[in-house]
Amino acid sequence: MTSILIADDHELVRETIATFLRNAAGFEITQCADFSGALAKITANGPYDLVLVDYTMPGMSLPEGMNALIDANMPNPVAMLSGTASADVARRVLESGARGFLPKTMAPETLVSAVRHILAGDTYTPRQFLEADPANPDAPQLTPRERDVLRGLCDGKSNKEIARDLDLQEVTIKLHVKTLSRKLNARNRTHAAMLGRDMDLI
Questions:
Q1: Dihedral sign, CA of 2, 171, 187, 194?
Q2: Cα dist. 160→100, 171, 175 in Å?
Q3: 3-state class percentages of the chain: helix first, strand second, coil last, to nearest 5
Q4: Where are the chain's structural domains?
Q5: Is 52 in a helix, a strand, or coil?
Q6: E-only strand ranges, the chain
Q7: Residue in 30, 63, 22 with CA at minimum distance from that of residue 47
Q8: Record: fold of 3-130
């Protein structure tokens, strides 16, 4: 059975990702909450088939932390999870040797596909996340799913309603709203909707 270690200090998000990967793909999932815990798990159990680590968990750093995890888990891959990191951080993560950058806000089926892609020996690069819009290079770069959520915000819908419309979990929508607020420098969801309209992002 394919073994995956998920290291993330946000328990709800970590458990949501772990449960989906376990149920949807049959992976054997181990969890921990920080960088030192991840290293301890790898040392105790040997290399996992894949290690997924949160960008902002306690003790994590670039490139030192990523390099340490990559060395510990050799020859198997390490990839980064993030709900808030910028495109610049994503590039730095990949340049440090990570085998993928997986936004936490990606659709569950896309997450499974990305994990399988990495396990097959490839590097997962979210092009829509990394590439700027040439027609408006200064605009915040939103993924297609973030634009879907932004449309819901602009329609005045709750997280629960947006989740139902998009067939996603409510916790995933909460992550999208948090990311949208950061990218748009919005004070709250109403402000994000207003800015989205003003910037013609939907």
A1: positive
A2: 30, 9, 13
A3: 50, 10, 35
A4: 3-130, 144-197
A5: strand
A6: 3-7, 28-32, 50-54, 78-82, 101-103
A7: 30
A8: Rossmann fold (3.40.50)
What sign does the CA torsion over 38, 44, 45, 49 have? positive
The overall average pLDDT reported for the chain is: 88
Do 191 and 199 contact (CB within 8 A), yes or no?
no
Q: For residues 66 and 43, what is the distance between their CA atoms, to the nearest angstrom?
A: 15
- Could you tell me the fold of the domain covering 144-197? Arc Repressor Mutant, subunit A (1.10.10)
Largest CA distance in the chain: 53
* Site of tokens 């629960």: 160
Q: How far apart are the first and last CA of the chain?
A: 42
Query: Whole-prediction pTM value?
Result: 0.68
- pLDDT tens-place string over residues 138-177: 567 777 888 899 999 999 999 999 999 998 899 999 989 9
